[in-house]
Structure formats: C-alpha cells, structure tokens
Amino acid sequence: MLQHGVLLAFLSYSAFALSDASIKLLEGTINPFQLAFTGAVLGFAAVPFARRRGERWSDLVRSSRPGPWFVRAVASGICAVSSVVAFTRLPMPEAFSLIFLMPIFVTILSVVLLKEEVGVWRWSAVVLGFVGVLVVLRPGFRALHLGHLAALSAGITAAIAIVMFRVAGPGEKRIALYGAGLIGPLVLNGLLMIPGLAMPTPRQMAFMASYGLLAALGNVLLMFAAQASPASRIAPPQYSQMIWAVALSYWLFGQSVDAATFVGIAIIVAAGLLTWARERIKVPVWLRRMPMRPR
Predict the structure, then answer these.
(1) Nearest CA to 2 among 243, 282, 237?
(2) Cα–Cα distance between 141 and 153 in angstroms, integer?
(3) Which residues contact 108 (CB under 8 A, 6 or more apart)?
(4) What per-residue confidence (pLDDT) applies to 276?
(5) Looking at per-residue confidence, does 286 or 178 come out higher?
(6) DSSP for 3-70?
(7) How far is residue 288's CA from residue 123's CA, in Å, rounded to a whole number?
(8) What kind and span of H or E run contains 253?
(9) pLDDT-wise least confident of 49-58, 145-154, 188-197, 270-279
(10) Alpha helices in the chain (DSSP H)
(11) Confidence of residue 289 (pLDDT cuts 50, 70, 90)
C-alpha cells in the first residue's frame, strides 16, 4: 500500500511538470491572468475527489475560519499567475529551483506567524536554500528579470497558503481549504484578465486545456497518494519534477542548463530534503533535551 502511494505521488508530480510545460509551449502568447483563470476553471474537475462525505458544494466558499480562508485564496491567486509568468520567462529547471524554496519560506513563516520553535536542522536548511539561490541567480554576474521575481513570488505565496492551512486547523473542512485554492485564482485573475482578454486560437486552447486538466489530474493523484501513504513518504518524490524540467528543457525547448545552475539546483534540493529528513530521523535523547529542538 505504501509503495502504491509513492508511485501515485511520482505520477502526480509528472502531471504537474507536464502541466507547467504546457505554459511554456504557449510562448507567452496568452495573457498570464487569462491563463491562470483558465487553470482555476478547469481545476474544478478535481473537486468531486476533494469532497468528503457530508461536505456540501457550498462549503467551497463557506469557512469556519474566514480570515485564513481569505488569505489562502489571495495567496493562491497570486501564486497561480506568478507561476505562469515564471515558466513563461525562465527555463523550467531555473523556475523550479526558485519555486522549490517554498519549504524554506514555510519554516520562516512558521516562526514569524505561528511562533513555532525551529531547531538547528531546519535553520541549516534555510541557510543552505538561500546559498543555492545565490548560486542560481548569481546577482551581479547575470541579468535578473521579472521571471526570477515571479518564481520567488510563487514560492512565497505557496508557503503562505500552506501556513494558512495550518492556521485554519483540523476543524476546517477539506473542501473549504481546497476551494480557497480555486476561488482565489478564479476571482483575482478573472478580474485582472479583463483588459487583455482575447479569444485563443485552437492551438492555444489545446495547450490551455492541457495546463488546467493536467494540474487537476495531478491534484487528484496526489489526494489518492495521501490516502495510501503518509505525507512524509509522498513529499520527496516532488523533486522528480526537476528531472522532468531538465529533460523537457533539453528535448522540447532546446534550452541548456549551465554547470553553476545545476550546482545551485542541487543545493536547493538538498535543503528541501534536509527539512524532510529532519522529520524522519529519530533524534537522540540528548538532542531532544536541547531548547532549540523543533516541536
């Protein structure tokens, strides 16, 4: 059963990677707000799988904690369009490397907003992650542009959405939390796309559908994976997206990745895995008594 869940996780992240490749295939010919809005509309295909028995469709917009729901909705809306801009303007591995800072941002926000105690392992992962960013971006040695800012924005807003999930607590309905991730992009990007709204060509519509439906499929597979395996088992396969990103960059888009970027990506992935490993490795008794031990 555990292996079944891990396999589903790998398939899920493959679907997400191909969804992101669909954005890049559009080559920036579609208004990013319109594309993010379309993704949200098609994302409703996954709602029947997110809805638990006893939950109503109206619970998509009804929350017992309106504050966290609203913040999560806004963060999800910004994250959606930021991801679109990042994958449009950056090579896929570079975009992923910055978006994958999300666990690092979760750690920082957990300290600031949730007052969580964070130990030396997770702070080490934070420092390691930012070293990786400096290696990837090389400020002062290469031109930085909107794509890099968008990728960082996607990582930060995704982290905010996750922290709001924690703030809402276990009493919040799952469909309400999932609904915030759809309603936010739908409303925010729906309003912002109006000035640049245009009728897509059949080719553009095909890639837009691929983007939205593959993302919905990824969410469904990830839900099934979470039911079959603990979260600690299905988190590491997320980094398989980097393999997809490098392969697609070479074979589909003809974009090479230089050695320094590879090193930076490896450092960022190591930082993310360090955070995961901290939750998996048994801590010695002497270390448990240290005041910096995380909860």
Answers:
(1) 237
(2) 22
(3) 126, 159
(4) 65
(5) 178
(6) HHHHHHHHHHHHHHHHHHHHHHHTTT-S-HHHHHHHHHHHHGGGHHHHPPTT--GGGGS--SSHHHHH
(7) 16
(8) none
(9) 270-279
(10) 2-25, 32-43, 47-50, 66-89, 92-99, 102-114, 120-137, 146-168, 174-192, 202-228, 231-234, 240-251, 259-280, 285-288
(11) very low
Q: What DSSP character marks residue 102?
A: H
Q: The tokens of 66 are what?
A: 């309106």
Helix 2-25 × helix 92-99 angle, to 10°: 120
Residue 142's DSSP bridge partners are 139
Give the rounded percent of residues in the chain with a pLDDT score beyond 90: 36
Buried b / exposed e across 66-86, counting CB within 10 Å, b at 16+?
eebbebbbbbbbbbbbbbbbb
Residue 77 tokens, joined:
């809306």
Each residue's pLDDT tens digit, 201-241: 999 999 999 999 999 999 889 888 877 777 667 777 888 88
Question: Which residues are registered as beta bridge partners of 225?
Answer: none
Of 178, 187, 164, 171, give the one whose Cα is nearest residue 220. Answer: 178
Token digits for 219?
């969410």
Bridge partner list, 139: 142
Tokens of 278: 């901290």
Q: pLDDT value at position 81? A: 96
**Confidence at residue 172, expressed as pLDDT on a 0 to 100 scale:** 77
Element (H, E) at 237: none
Report the alpha-carbon distance of residue 236 to residue 32 in Å, rounded: 29
Range of lowest pLDDT (33-47, 164-178, 241-255)? 164-178
Q: Which amino acid is at 203?
A: R
Cβ contacts of 127 within 8 Å, gap of 6 or more: none
Residue in 30, 35, 65, 42 with CA at minimum distance from that of residue 218: 42
